[in-house]
Amino acid sequence: MVSQGSSPSLLEALSSDFLACKICLEQLRAPKTLPCLHTYCQDCLAQLADGGHLRCPECRETVPVPPAGVAAFKTNFFVNGLLDLVRARAGGDLRAGKPACALCPLMGGAGTGGPATARCLDCADDLCQACADGHRCTRQTHTHRVVDLVGYRAGWYDEEARERQAAQCPQHPGEALRFLCQPCSQLLCRECRLDPHLDHPCLPLAEAVRARRPGLEELLAGVDNNLSELESARMVEKEALARLREQAARVGTQVEEVAEGVLRALLAQKQEVLGQLRAHVEAAEEAARERLGELEGREQVARAAAAFARRVLSLGREAEILSLEGAIAQRLRQLQGCPWMPAPAPGLLPRLELHPGLLDKNCHLLRLCFEEQQPQKDSGKDEAGGQGGDEAQSQTEGGAKSERQGGIQPQSRDGANTPKENRAQTPQEEGAQTPKEERAKMPQEDGAHTPNEGRAQTPLEDEGAQTPRGSRSNKKRKFKGRLKSISREPSPAPGLNLEGSGLLPRPIFSCSFPTRMPGDKRSPRITGLCPFGPREILVADEQNRALKRFSLSGDYRGAVPVPEGCSPCSVAALQGAVAFSAGARLYLISPDGEVQWRRALSLSQASHAVAAMPSGDRVAVSVSGHVEVYNMEGSLATRFIPGGKANRGLRALVFLTTSPQGNFVGSDWQQNSVVVCDGLGQVIGEYRGPGLHGCQPGSVSVDKKGYIFLTLREVNKVVILDPKGSLLGDFLTAYHGLEKPRVTTMVDGRHLVVSLSNGTIHVFRVRPPDS
After folding, report:
1. CA 424 → CA 290, 419, 421, distances in Å?
2. Are 700 and 686 in contact (CB under 8 A)?
3. Potential cystine with 265: which of 166, 256, 483, 522 (Cβ 3.0-4.6 Å)?
4. Spatial separation of the C-alpha atoms in residues 177 and 77, rounded to whole Å
5. Residue-wise pLDDT tens digits, 339-358
6. What angle do CA 116, 119, 123 make, to 5 degrees?
7. Residue 477 confidence class, pLDDT cut points 50, 70, 90
8. Residue 362 DSSP class
9. How crowded is residue 310: how many other Cβ atoms within 10 Å of its Cβ?
10. Which residue from 617, 688, 701 is spatially nearest to 651, judged by alpha carbons?
11. Of 520, 504, 554, 535, which Cα lies nearest the Cα of 755?
């Protein structure tokens, strides 16, 4: 049987680390082979031997040390032969010092022999030219193979030398091993054959190899089959691990989405309940004011009549009293007969009622369930397993929604209600169910409930926690909020409402990391971000005068050196270069910090925004309300004012970026707007509506489809605008961990990187619409 593995070549064995000891990392000396077939120097093994045992440094197998010590381990004659070949080749530079002839000193010559020019492969001796010529003329050596020494040292005759190489007997120097003692399984030379093994059956080495090779090849074929099975098992294990990681990533993303949905729904319910509370208090205050006014009027009339009657009785004469007695008595009777107190006020005091599940410490809105998965060996089964994983996710998501909606039926991903029988209740869920009589009093939603990622509230729904009918009745009201989706756009905005249409990107939190490094003397102040290579960003830290490199997972990759005294403000990466603004200058440097050129900018602007063009060979910078574009040589390629010369002096672009379509997007602080223009300065769209919340527009980034992500620092938001500048809704809010966001950048069109004022960076994956 033939081995399934490919046979290694002699050149590979000589040029690889096969001849190096894995302990001392030097060339093997006195190589000894362990039973696990790993070979090391004899001295190295002696240092590892401890208490009659040693552990192989490679496979960690414990091997007993023979009673005679590590020297009794089998000598690796195969490695010795290769080492002899390597030593013979490693003679150094022939021009620096030529080796001497090995035969000249044996012929009675004084001193060393002449310079060697040839080598006998059979004798393994270096020969001078005269000895080489004579070597071919004797009866005993005329069949020997004599080759050029330079070619031998170059490795031209390695295979031939290896075939003629003979293993030497360790007990009898100069004697080659020629026989195999069959009972002792020991290699013998002629001297060994004569004494202790004289009566033992012995075979010549070639005949012994022919007899034993088939058995070894059969064993090797069996091991090859085992290797194939091990490789298949390893691939199955790796595929199972990959499926686990993929499923864990999906579940992690789902946990993030569900948790964010629960928070959004809870906050929406908070706003609704607070709105109902405010409406109730306002209605009660209005009714109380009316009643107080009526009571104060009646009190004033009664007090005036009583005061007049008391004054007449105390100061009037008899005639005067009697003359007014009838009128006074009539008025006092009239006042006594009137209903002094109006109808009693309804005592409607608000009281918060919590769902029982919120008070139950054992009630978990999110929980994991685990299913045993069988190994899958074909693509069809893989697909089935993937569908099963998605189905399990849907069940988990439905269970979480059922728990947080307090008795409302769980939903599937398409928004339809899932029958209650499809999911078994846990004891926690059973304890958290609302009684039927209480659920009957809760406001009911019309139609099927939408998932968290479905339709968002309209501005009217978000603003108005409207007072239910009968709110002013004397019947006691119970304030119970419904779980709804929070609005992506809290304030009314003009234009088409895309909420719930699945046409907007959505954020998925990826990671968060600080940017302060051990060498920083001050807290970071991030003023610029840009993509820098695959899945890497460049951070402009103005406070520490540094351009720092980070991976999207937060690994620090070093820094790009900046000129002495420069404090980078805005930064952009070009083809093999980095552009940044510092003070009133624009710099272009190489990744190793070499300044290629610098340009002076206007002093009328405190900072200058820098953006790379989509082609990567030009850089745009905002200067005093207009945009200047420079090429890689530092020449001004174009210059324009958004909206034309009529807007001269009316623009102040503090933040600037470019879109993959070649348009420019800037935050105009003078107009308090976001302006979108083409490469000629023609305005495509501009937004200055109520969605800015009265804030100055901040950093802008654009994804690969042209959606604009605008930072509103004062309200801790990042909002989305369409490619023409119309506001679509919120993308990130304070509920996503935003606290005073400063600058953003888009990496690969799929990751939005947001820096905060405290130097922390958040990375969000932009989930495409309808995905």
Report:
1. 55, 11, 7
2. no
3. 483
4. 10
5. 656 666 666 888 888 877 77
6. 125
7. very low
8. T
9. 11
10. 688
11. 554
Triad 352, 353, 358: Cα angle to 5° = 115
CA-to-CA distance for 130 and 109, rounded, in angstroms?
13
Specify whether the CB–CB gap between 389 and 247 falls below 8 A: yes
Question: 């004569």: which residue's tokens?
Answer: 194
Which tokens go with 125? 């001796």
Return the structure tokens found at 306: 């009583």
What lies within 8 Å, CB to CB, of 611 at 6+ separation is 572, 619, 620, 621, 656, 657, 658, 664
b/e code 504-526 from CB counts within 10 Å (16+ = b):
bbbbbbbeebebbeeebeeebbb
Q: What is the dihedral of CA 105, 109, 115, 120, to 10 degrees?
A: -40
Q: Strand pairing of 700-702 and 708-712?
A: antiparallel
Instruction: Name all contacts of 67-70 with Cβ < 8 Å and 24+ positions apart.
Output: 70/32, 70/42, 70/45, 70/46
Residue 226 to residue 236: CA distance in whole angstroms: 15
Q: How far is CA 346 from CA 288, 292, 384, 469, 475, in A?
A: 10, 14, 63, 17, 9
pTM of this structure = 0.42
pLDDT at 763 over 80: yes
Between CA 27 and CA 16 the distance in angstroms is: 11
pLDDT tens column, 219-268: 888 888 888 888 888 898 888 888 888 888 888 888 888 888 888 888 88
Contact predicate 607/615, CB 8 Å: no
Contact between residue 501 and residue 490 where contact means Cβ atoms under 8 Å apart:
no
